[in-house]
Amino acid sequence: MAEAAARHELFTQQQWAHQRAERAERNAERLEREIQAQAASAAASESLAELHYVDSLSGSVQSICKAPIASLDCMADLGSTTEQLCAKLQAAAVKESVDRVSSAAQSPSLTSGLRYRNLGKSGLRVSNIGLATWTTYNTAINEEQLDAVVTAAYNAGINLFDLTEGPQSSEQAETQLGAILKRKNWKRVSYSVITKIHWHYKSEERGLSRKHIIESVRSSVARLQLDYIDIVLIQKADPMCPLEEVVRAMDFLVSEGLIMYWGTAKWSPIDVTEMYTACRQLNCSTPILEQSEYHMLCREKVEIYMPELYNKIGVGLMAWSPLAMGLLPSFKDSLRSRSSNRTKASSISWNQDDRKPPSKENNEPLTTRNTKEILFSISLIADRLGCSLVQLCIAWTLKNESVQCLLLGAATTHQFYHALHGLQLLPKLNSNVMAELERILDNKPVRPPMVSTLAMR
Question: Three-state SS for 112?
């Protein structure tokens, strides 16, 4: 038994020794392969370093003609001089840049100075410049010219089209713009459309009844050939209609998907506040903006009351008429305006009530020497800044942080680009220039002092 156990133990030790020998042999072979691989890698590194050294000595030809050579044209280039190769590469670079510019012109691009801001405290972001119907949509402009202006605005990055002028002009503008949008087939999310609910005391469309509001919106949707309208504005408050009826009608349109947002136009701050309060009490959709006139000769509402409305209830500001209906610029620089609006524009401001007859006091400042001196002094500042009076007026309006969107109109693409270049003037309107303009205008509005009820007793 002892002898058998000894033989078994010896056999086991021999197997272990044989396995250790095989393992050592495999390790030696693996180590040899690793040494050979390291040697090959070192040789490749040395050859690569040699190539880099040769490339550095060969100069610009090696930097221009890089291997691998992929075509026979490159083989022919090897026989050319360095100057010829550089000229060919520069021509190719210029062609590539031209192709990039031409391809970029096919899609909307952001214009320098154009910004996108939220309207009020809503989530709707629009460009700080919008295309309005002041001079763009009228009978004197053919469809091709109108198409060119709308396309130029869209390609410049403007995503807001406003159709809120008058009852007749607005209907025609809705039809024209609807045809253009259908023909262009732009993405619906890439632009926003604003229209207005018009009414007048002397017309058949009397007041802001629920019937008139819903029928007006449905007619506008049909004329625009759209599924919905982004923003609908209510022009002027109606003292003969309850606010609850107006609020519920607008909330119905929002819930039906015919409109996304709604706002007001030419409302007083008190009326806007009462409307917002009624919306909160009835748990209905609230207005997101107020559209107001704002220029160098009409400042009180925008500069005193609108910031307060924005901070308290979140109603934003969309400004229109930065050129005071063509009264501020000179005749050679002014945008094209219609003769039918000159009598209305003679009062400088459109915020007056239509029920009141025009007073002589409103027309008096236009014929005074003081107004002419103001316009002449402002034109001198524009010449010093290297711009036109139109561009200075637009930049001055956009300088106000309360203005979230400014509406511009143009009859031609030249007028549109001329007005749009007013964005480039914003950095030049520093504190010194603005102070100089304030001294010339001398019409900065001041909030009236608070009147104590105790002092009135």
Answer: coil
Distance in angstroms between the alpha carbons of the first and the last residue of the chain: 132
Q: Which of 200, 140, 143 is nearest to 167 (CA)?
A: 200
Query: In the chain, which stretches have pLDDT less than 70?
Result: 1-8, 10-11, 39, 41-110, 134-141, 165-169, 200-206, 324-369, 452-457
Distances (CA, A) of 27 to 18, 31, 34: 14, 6, 11
Count CB neighbours of 154 within 10 A. 20
Q: Which two tokens stand for residue 151?
A: 């396309």
Beta strands in 284-354 (DSSP E): 289-293, 316-320
pTM, two decimal places = 0.68
Asked if 192 and 242 touch (Cβ cutoff 8 Å), the reply is no
Q: b or e along 251-279 (b: 16 or more beta carbons within 10 Å of the residue's beta carbon)?
A: bbbbeeebbbbbbbbbbebebbbebbebb
Q: What angle do CA 73, 75, 81 make, to 5 degrees?
A: 95
CB count, 10 Å around CB of 91?
10
Query: What span, in angstroms and rounded, lies between the C-alpha atoms of 235 and 48?
Result: 77
- Exposure class string for 208-244: b at 16+ Cβ within 10 A, else e: bbeebbbebbeebbebbebebbbbbbbbbbbeebebe
Tell me which DSSP letter residue 305 carries: I
Measuring CA to CA, which residue among 328, 341, 431 is closest to residue 382? 328
Q: Return the beta strands (E) in 11-166 as ranges.
A: 116-118, 125-127, 129-131, 160-163
* Residue pair 204/235 in contact by the 8 Å Cβ criterion: no
Q: Does 108 sit behind a cis peptide bond, omega within 30 degrees of 0 on the bond before it?
A: no
The strand pairing partners of 406, in sequence order, are: 129, 319
Query: What is the rounded CA–CA span in Å between residue 236 and residue 200?
Result: 9
Structure tokens at 446: 């001041």
Q: Is the dihedral of CA 93, 98, 101, 106 positive or negative?
A: negative
Residues 6+ apart with CB under 8 A from 55: 62, 63
- Cα–Cα distance measured from residue 79 to residue 65, given in angstroms and rounded to the nearest whole number: 11
pLDDT tens for 47-92 read 555 544 444 444 443 433 333 333 333 333 334 444 554 555 455 5
- Residue 130 Cα to chain centre, angstroms: 8
Q: Alpha-carbon distance 285 to 293, whole Å? A: 25
Diameter over CA atoms, the chain: 140
Tokens standing for residue 86: 């550089």
Number of H helices, E strands in the chain: 17, 10
